[in-house]
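Observation: inputs received (chain + 2-acetamido-2-deoxy-beta-D-glucopyranose).
Thought: call the complex predictor directly.
Action: predict_structure
Action Input:
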Amino acid sequence: MIKMSYLVLLNAALWGKTSQSSNYLQSGPELALDGLLTSWTHTNNETNPWWRVDLLKVYRVNRVTITNRPSNGLRINGAVIRYFFDYGATATFSCGAMEGRYMIVHIPGDKKILSLSEAGVYGVPPGNLAVDGAATQSSTFTGWFAEKAIDSNRGLQQNTACSSTLNQTNPWWRLDLRHIYRVSRVVVTNRKDCCTEQMNGAEIRIGNSLENNSNNNPICAVIPAIPAGESYSYSCGGMDGRYVNLIIPGDMKILTLCELEVYGEVNPLNVFVNILRLAVIDFCIAFQRFT
Ligand SMILES: *[C@@H]1O[C@H](CO)[C@@H](O)[C@H](O)[C@H]1NC(C)=O
Ligand SMILES: *[C@@H]1O[C@H](CO)[C@@H](O)[C@H](O)[C@H]1NC(C)=O
Ligand SMILES: *[C@@H]1O[C@H](CO)[C@@H](O)[C@H](O)[C@H]1NC(C)=O
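Observation:
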Protein backbone atom coordinates (compact mmCIF):
# COMPACT_ATOMS: atom_id res chain seq x y z
CA MET A 1 0.00 0.00 0.00
CA ILE A 2 1.25 3.42 -0.89
CA LYS A 3 2.49 5.47 2.00
CA MET A 4 0.57 8.68 2.29
CA SER A 5 2.33 11.97 2.16
CA TYR A 6 0.91 15.27 2.78
CA LEU A 7 1.68 18.66 2.48
CA VAL A 8 1.43 21.40 0.85
CA LEU A 9 1.54 24.18 -0.93
CA LEU A 10 1.98 27.40 -2.20
CA ASN A 11 0.27 28.66 -5.14
CA ALA A 12 0.02 25.31 -6.67
CA ALA A 13 -1.94 26.85 -9.42
CA LEU A 14 1.27 28.55 -10.35
CA TRP A 15 3.90 26.02 -9.51
CA GLY A 16 2.32 22.74 -8.46
CA LYS A 17 2.23 19.85 -10.88
CA THR A 18 -0.61 17.38 -10.69
CA SER A 19 -0.84 13.82 -11.89
CA GLN A 20 -3.08 10.81 -11.39
CA SER A 21 -2.99 7.10 -12.12
CA SER A 22 -5.21 7.36 -15.21
CA ASN A 23 -7.52 9.87 -16.89
CA TYR A 24 -11.10 8.92 -17.56
CA LEU A 25 -12.09 10.84 -20.71
CA GLN A 26 -11.03 14.49 -20.27
CA SER A 27 -11.09 14.44 -16.46
CA GLY A 28 -7.44 15.26 -15.87
CA PRO A 29 -5.70 15.75 -12.49
CA GLU A 30 -5.48 19.54 -12.85
CA LEU A 31 -9.25 19.85 -12.46
CA ALA A 32 -8.89 19.56 -8.69
CA LEU A 33 -7.09 22.92 -8.72
CA ASP A 34 -9.19 24.95 -11.10
CA GLY A 35 -11.41 26.50 -8.44
CA LEU A 36 -14.55 25.12 -10.09
CA LEU A 37 -17.02 22.86 -8.32
CA THR A 38 -18.53 21.98 -11.69
CA SER A 39 -15.49 20.01 -12.79
CA TRP A 40 -13.66 17.09 -11.23
CA THR A 41 -10.84 14.69 -11.73
CA HIS A 42 -11.71 11.10 -12.58
CA THR A 43 -9.59 8.00 -12.93
CA ASN A 44 -10.52 4.80 -14.69
CA ASN A 45 -12.04 1.97 -12.71
CA GLU A 46 -8.82 0.31 -11.62
CA THR A 47 -6.68 -1.01 -8.80
CA ASN A 48 -5.27 1.56 -6.35
CA PRO A 49 -6.25 4.79 -8.15
CA TRP A 50 -4.37 7.87 -6.97
CA TRP A 51 -4.10 11.62 -7.45
CA ARG A 52 -1.01 13.64 -6.59
CA VAL A 53 0.24 17.21 -6.45
CA ASP A 54 3.95 17.99 -6.44
CA LEU A 55 4.44 21.32 -4.71
CA LEU A 56 7.98 21.46 -6.07
CA LYS A 57 9.42 22.12 -2.63
CA VAL A 58 8.68 21.28 0.96
CA TYR A 59 5.94 23.20 2.75
CA ARG A 60 4.60 23.16 6.27
CA VAL A 61 0.92 22.52 5.92
CA ASN A 62 -1.58 23.91 8.34
CA ARG A 63 -4.64 22.38 6.78
CA VAL A 64 -5.93 20.56 3.77
CA THR A 65 -9.37 20.74 2.25
CA ILE A 66 -11.09 18.38 -0.12
CA THR A 67 -14.31 19.10 -1.91
CA ASN A 68 -16.41 16.22 -3.10
CA ARG A 69 -18.38 16.16 -6.32
CA PRO A 70 -21.96 17.33 -6.24
CA SER A 71 -22.99 13.96 -7.69
CA ASN A 72 -21.53 10.45 -7.64
CA GLY A 73 -19.74 11.48 -4.47
CA LEU A 74 -18.86 7.94 -3.52
CA ARG A 75 -16.07 8.05 -6.05
CA ILE A 76 -13.95 10.22 -3.88
CA ASN A 77 -12.81 7.42 -1.75
CA GLY A 78 -14.84 4.52 -0.72
CA ALA A 79 -15.58 4.18 2.94
CA VAL A 80 -13.24 6.94 3.92
CA ILE A 81 -14.98 9.56 1.97
CA ARG A 82 -18.43 8.29 2.47
CA TYR A 83 -17.97 8.84 6.11
CA PHE A 84 -16.39 12.24 5.96
CA PHE A 85 -18.08 13.94 3.06
CA ASP A 86 -21.56 14.77 2.11
CA TYR A 87 -22.01 15.16 -1.58
CA GLY A 88 -20.87 18.63 -2.59
CA ALA A 89 -19.42 19.30 0.85
CA THR A 90 -15.94 20.41 1.76
CA ALA A 91 -14.11 18.77 4.62
CA THR A 92 -11.11 20.25 6.38
CA PHE A 93 -8.32 18.23 7.90
CA SER A 94 -5.96 19.70 10.39
CA CYS A 95 -2.50 18.49 9.54
CA GLY A 96 -0.63 19.97 12.44
CA ALA A 97 2.86 20.81 11.43
CA MET A 98 3.29 18.14 8.81
CA GLU A 99 5.91 18.94 6.24
CA GLY A 100 6.18 17.60 2.74
CA ARG A 101 6.41 18.18 -0.94
CA TYR A 102 3.87 15.73 -2.37
CA MET A 103 0.28 15.25 -1.47
CA ILE A 104 -1.25 12.01 -2.55
CA VAL A 105 -4.82 10.88 -2.45
CA HIS A 106 -5.10 7.18 -2.88
CA ILE A 107 -7.78 4.54 -2.68
CA PRO A 108 -6.42 1.15 -1.83
CA GLY A 109 -8.14 -1.82 -3.42
CA ASP A 110 -9.41 -3.25 -6.68
CA LYS A 111 -12.10 -1.82 -8.97
CA LYS A 112 -11.99 1.66 -7.48
CA ILE A 113 -12.52 5.07 -9.03
CA LEU A 114 -11.02 8.23 -7.53
CA SER A 115 -12.80 11.48 -8.38
CA LEU A 116 -12.17 14.85 -6.67
CA SER A 117 -13.87 18.15 -7.31
CA GLU A 118 -11.38 20.40 -5.52
CA ALA A 119 -8.50 20.06 -3.14
CA GLY A 120 -6.77 22.81 -1.20
CA VAL A 121 -3.60 22.98 0.77
CA TYR A 122 -2.88 25.80 3.12
CA GLY A 123 0.57 26.27 4.44
CA VAL A 124 3.84 28.10 4.36
CA PRO A 125 7.38 27.11 3.61
CA PRO A 126 8.78 25.94 6.95
CA GLY A 127 11.37 28.03 8.70
CA ASN A 128 12.80 31.34 7.64
CA LEU A 129 10.40 33.13 5.29
CA ALA A 130 13.06 35.59 4.16
CA VAL A 131 14.87 33.10 1.94
CA ASP A 132 11.99 33.13 -0.53
CA GLY A 133 11.82 36.92 -0.60
CA ALA A 134 13.57 39.64 -2.56
CA ALA A 135 15.86 42.24 -0.95
CA THR A 136 16.76 45.78 -1.98
CA GLN A 137 18.39 48.76 -0.25
CA SER A 138 18.73 52.52 -0.60
CA SER A 139 22.32 52.36 -1.92
CA THR A 140 25.02 49.70 -2.12
CA PHE A 141 28.60 49.83 -0.88
CA THR A 142 30.78 47.99 -3.42
CA GLY A 143 29.80 44.32 -3.51
CA TRP A 144 27.75 44.46 -0.31
CA PHE A 145 24.47 43.69 -2.02
CA ALA A 146 21.08 43.69 -0.28
CA GLU A 147 20.55 39.98 -1.08
CA LYS A 148 23.48 39.01 1.10
CA ALA A 149 21.32 39.58 4.16
CA ILE A 150 19.00 36.77 3.06
CA ASP A 151 21.58 34.29 1.75
CA SER A 152 21.26 31.98 4.79
CA ASN A 153 24.85 32.88 5.68
CA ARG A 154 25.15 34.97 8.82
CA GLY A 155 28.49 36.20 7.56
CA LEU A 156 30.48 35.74 10.74
CA GLN A 157 33.53 34.23 9.07
CA GLN A 158 33.32 36.17 5.87
CA ASN A 159 32.06 39.73 6.07
CA THR A 160 31.43 39.92 2.36
CA ALA A 161 28.38 37.78 3.08
CA CYS A 162 26.73 40.93 4.47
CA SER A 163 24.87 43.86 2.92
CA SER A 164 25.79 47.52 3.36
CA THR A 165 24.58 50.88 2.15
CA LEU A 166 26.74 53.89 1.48
CA ASN A 167 27.14 56.66 4.05
CA GLN A 168 23.92 58.58 3.45
CA THR A 169 20.78 60.13 4.95
CA ASN A 170 18.14 57.63 6.14
CA PRO A 171 19.72 54.43 4.77
CA TRP A 172 17.23 51.56 4.47
CA TRP A 173 17.04 47.90 3.53
CA ARG A 174 13.81 46.21 2.43
CA LEU A 175 12.62 42.62 2.15
CA ASP A 176 9.64 41.76 -0.03
CA LEU A 177 8.15 38.49 1.28
CA ARG A 178 6.03 38.30 -1.90
CA HIS A 179 2.91 37.41 0.11
CA ILE A 180 1.32 38.85 3.22
CA TYR A 181 2.39 37.00 6.34
CA ARG A 182 1.64 37.40 10.01
CA VAL A 183 5.14 38.00 11.31
CA SER A 184 5.87 36.64 14.77
CA ARG A 185 9.55 37.52 14.96
CA VAL A 186 12.49 38.97 13.10
CA VAL A 187 16.05 37.84 13.80
CA VAL A 188 18.83 40.28 12.97
CA THR A 189 22.55 39.39 12.86
CA ASN A 190 25.22 42.07 13.19
CA ARG A 191 28.69 41.90 11.68
CA LYS A 192 31.53 40.55 13.76
CA ASP A 193 34.73 42.14 12.50
CA CYS A 194 34.17 45.83 13.13
CA CYS A 195 31.77 48.70 12.79
CA THR A 196 29.06 47.14 14.92
CA GLU A 197 27.47 50.55 15.39
CA GLN A 198 26.28 50.48 11.78
CA MET A 199 23.04 49.01 12.96
CA ASN A 200 22.40 51.21 15.97
CA GLY A 201 19.07 52.96 15.95
CA ALA A 202 17.66 50.87 13.11
CA GLU A 203 13.88 50.63 13.09
CA ILE A 204 12.22 47.36 12.04
CA ARG A 205 9.08 48.24 10.11
CA ILE A 206 6.49 45.80 8.81
CA GLY A 207 3.49 46.40 6.60
CA ASN A 208 2.01 46.41 3.12
CA SER A 209 2.72 49.96 2.00
CA LEU A 210 5.48 50.95 -0.42
CA GLU A 211 5.02 54.61 0.49
CA ASN A 212 8.34 56.25 1.31
CA ASN A 213 10.04 52.99 0.28
CA SER A 214 7.99 51.17 2.95
CA ASN A 215 9.63 53.25 5.66
CA ASN A 216 6.28 54.58 6.89
CA ASN A 217 4.94 51.13 7.80
CA PRO A 218 4.36 50.40 11.52
CA ILE A 219 7.36 49.80 13.76
CA CYS A 220 7.93 46.39 15.32
CA ALA A 221 11.04 47.40 17.27
CA VAL A 222 13.98 49.77 17.36
CA ILE A 223 17.44 48.20 17.64
CA PRO A 224 19.53 50.13 20.20
CA ALA A 225 22.61 48.02 19.44
CA ILE A 226 23.58 44.41 18.75
CA PRO A 227 26.96 43.09 19.95
CA ALA A 228 29.50 41.97 17.33
CA GLY A 229 28.51 38.76 15.57
CA GLU A 230 25.35 38.24 17.58
CA SER A 231 21.81 37.49 16.43
CA TYR A 232 18.99 39.23 18.27
CA SER A 233 15.36 38.21 17.99
CA TYR A 234 12.60 40.82 17.99
CA SER A 235 9.06 39.74 18.74
CA CYS A 236 6.58 41.42 16.43
CA GLY A 237 3.45 39.92 17.99
CA GLY A 238 1.75 38.93 14.77
CA MET A 239 2.12 42.07 12.65
CA ASP A 240 0.73 41.57 9.16
CA GLY A 241 2.76 42.57 6.17
CA ARG A 242 4.48 41.80 2.95
CA TYR A 243 7.44 44.17 3.47
CA VAL A 244 10.00 44.11 6.27
CA ASN A 245 12.25 47.17 6.43
CA LEU A 246 15.22 48.30 8.43
CA ILE A 247 15.86 52.04 8.40
CA ILE A 248 18.27 54.22 10.36
CA PRO A 249 16.83 57.73 10.47
CA GLY A 250 19.37 60.56 10.33
CA ASP A 251 22.24 61.99 8.34
CA MET A 252 25.62 60.36 7.59
CA LYS A 253 24.52 56.86 8.52
CA ILE A 254 25.52 53.49 7.14
CA LEU A 255 23.26 50.42 7.43
CA THR A 256 25.13 47.12 7.47
CA LEU A 257 23.26 43.83 7.88
CA CYS A 258 24.70 40.33 7.94
CA GLU A 259 21.46 38.36 8.05
CA LEU A 260 17.77 39.02 8.57
CA GLU A 261 15.38 36.13 9.18
CA VAL A 262 11.61 36.29 9.37
CA TYR A 263 9.34 33.75 11.07
CA GLY A 264 5.59 33.74 10.95
CA GLU A 265 2.41 32.27 9.62
CA VAL A 266 0.02 32.87 6.83
CA ASN A 267 -2.43 35.52 7.93
CA PRO A 268 -5.71 33.64 8.02
CA LEU A 269 -7.61 36.69 6.87
CA ASN A 270 -5.47 36.87 3.79
CA VAL A 271 -5.29 33.25 2.96
CA PHE A 272 -7.31 33.56 -0.17
CA VAL A 273 -5.61 36.70 -1.29
CA ASN A 274 -2.23 35.40 -0.71
CA ILE A 275 -1.79 32.13 -1.62
CA LEU A 276 -2.13 29.00 -0.85
CA ARG A 277 -4.90 27.44 -2.41
CA LEU A 278 -3.86 24.29 -3.62
CA ALA A 279 -4.44 21.04 -3.76
CA VAL A 280 -4.05 18.39 -1.74
CA ILE A 281 -5.30 15.96 0.19
CA ASP A 282 -4.09 14.17 2.76
CA PHE A 283 -5.56 11.54 4.63
CA CYS A 284 -3.63 12.50 7.63
CA ILE A 285 -6.74 11.82 9.61
CA ALA A 286 -9.01 9.72 7.50
CA PHE A 287 -6.62 6.92 6.80
CA GLN A 288 -5.64 6.60 10.37
CA ARG A 289 -9.22 5.88 11.18
CA PHE A 290 -10.10 3.67 8.29
CA THR A 291 -7.17 1.41 7.68
C1 LIG B 1 -15.60 -1.10 -11.44
O1 LIG B 1 -16.01 -2.06 -12.36
C2 LIG B 1 -16.57 -3.25 -11.75
C3 LIG B 1 -16.92 -4.23 -12.86
O2 LIG B 1 -15.79 -4.53 -13.60
C4 LIG B 1 -17.82 -2.88 -10.98
O3 LIG B 1 -18.31 -4.02 -10.31
C5 LIG B 1 -17.45 -1.84 -9.96
O4 LIG B 1 -18.61 -1.39 -9.28
C6 LIG B 1 -16.78 -0.64 -10.62
N1 LIG B 1 -16.35 0.28 -9.59
C7 LIG B 1 -16.87 1.51 -9.45
C8 LIG B 1 -16.31 2.34 -8.33
O5 LIG B 1 -17.73 1.95 -10.19
C1 LIG C 1 10.42 58.85 5.00
O1 LIG C 1 11.11 58.17 6.04
C2 LIG C 1 12.10 58.97 6.68
C3 LIG C 1 12.84 58.08 7.66
O2 LIG C 1 11.98 57.56 8.63
C4 LIG C 1 11.44 60.14 7.37
O3 LIG C 1 12.42 60.94 7.98
C5 LIG C 1 10.68 60.94 6.32
O4 LIG C 1 9.97 61.97 6.98
C6 LIG C 1 9.73 60.08 5.57
N1 LIG C 1 9.16 60.82 4.48
C7 LIG C 1 7.85 60.88 4.25
C8 LIG C 1 7.44 61.68 3.06
O5 LIG C 1 7.02 60.30 4.94
C1 LIG D 1 29.78 59.52 7.00
O1 LIG D 1 30.64 60.46 6.44
C2 LIG D 1 30.94 61.57 7.31
C3 LIG D 1 31.89 62.52 6.60
O2 LIG D 1 31.46 62.78 5.32
C4 LIG D 1 31.59 61.09 8.57
O3 LIG D 1 31.78 62.16 9.46
C5 LIG D 1 30.73 60.07 9.24
O4 LIG D 1 31.38 59.49 10.35
C6 LIG D 1 30.39 58.95 8.27
N1 LIG D 1 29.45 58.04 8.90
C7 LIG D 1 29.74 56.74 9.15
C8 LIG D 1 28.67 55.94 9.78
O5 LIG D 1 30.81 56.26 8.83
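Thought: report the result.
Final Answer: Residues 40 and 201 are 56 Å apart (CA to CA). The mean pLDDT is 77.
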